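[Solved] Which block belongs to which protein?

Original post:
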Amino acid sequence: MSLKEIREILEHFHRRAIARYCLEPRTFEEIINYMMEKTDWNHDLAYVLVGEHLAVLEKSHIVINVSGKWVTSKSAAEVLKKYF
C-alpha cells in the first residue's frame, strides 16, 4: 500500500486516533477504554466501532496484531509523523 493510500485511510479521525494510540502495542480492551475516554461512546458502542476501525486498519496493513496486541506498522507510523 502506498503512503498516499495510507494517508487517505488515516484522514478519518477515529482511525487516526487508534493508529496513533497503537504506536505502542495495545490490547483490544485498552483501545476500547481509550476511545471511550476520547469520545462519548459507551462500552457497547466502543466495542463495535473499535472492532470495525481495527478491521479496516488491519486490512490496510496500518495496524498489525502481534500476540493479541495491536501495533501500528512502520510505514503507517511514518505517515502519522509526516502528515498528522
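(Second protein starts here: sequence line, then its C-alpha cells.)
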Amino acid sequence: MLHPNLQVSKEGDDFPVDIDVARMSELVKGMLDEDNDDDEDTEIPLPNVKAAVLRKVIEFCQHHKGEPMTEIEKPLKSARMGEVVQKWYADFVNVEQVLLFELILAANYMDIKPLLDLTCATVASMIKGKTPEEIRKNVQYCK
C-alpha cells in the first residue's frame, strides 16, 4: 500500500503514513488525488502543522480507522467526555489546553471532521454550565 510522506516543512520532519489513514484528511486526499505521479513516496507539505501536533493527528486517524468514534450528540449530554465518546477518544483529548487548541487548528486546516468534532466538543465540555467569568478564568486562550 502507498505510504505518502506527510512533511511538516517548519520542522522538516517526515511521517510515513498508510494511504487510507492519510486520506482521512480531505486536504491530503485532494493533494493525493491531484498527484498523478506513481511514485510510492509522495511528499505532502503541511506547513501549518507542528511535528508534535501532526504526530497526535496521525495517532487519532490510525485509531479511528480501526475503531470509529461514536457520533457526538449535540448539544452535549455531559461535560465529561468519557460519557460522550469511547474511552480512548476521551483519553486522547485529555491534554494540555495549548495542545488541544493546536489540534483544533490542525483538524480544521487538514479538514478532518471527526477530529474537529472531538476537539471542539472537548472545548464545549470545558465551558458547559460555566459563567463567563469561570470560562475566562479556566480557559487559557481567553486570557
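Accepted answer:
You had them paired correctly. Confirming on the second one: The mean pLDDT is 88.
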